[in-house]
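input
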Amino acid sequence: MEKYMSDQTHSTPAGGNTALAFILGGVVVALLAVGWIVFGGGLPSAEQPDIRIELPGGKAVEGTVTGN
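output
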């Protein structure tokens, strides 16, 4: 029986390619995070947020959030 090129099947293990794609994806995410911090996003600050609550009648309560 003759074998033709169209009759041949090629199977390649996909495990290596999947692992490589996962690792490269992690590297890309890490580089994006470092780029965000270095080029303008900065790290989150530990400043206390200011709060303003406006009440009916035009009164407002202002202050800084303290505590945990």
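quick obs: The helical segments are 15-41.
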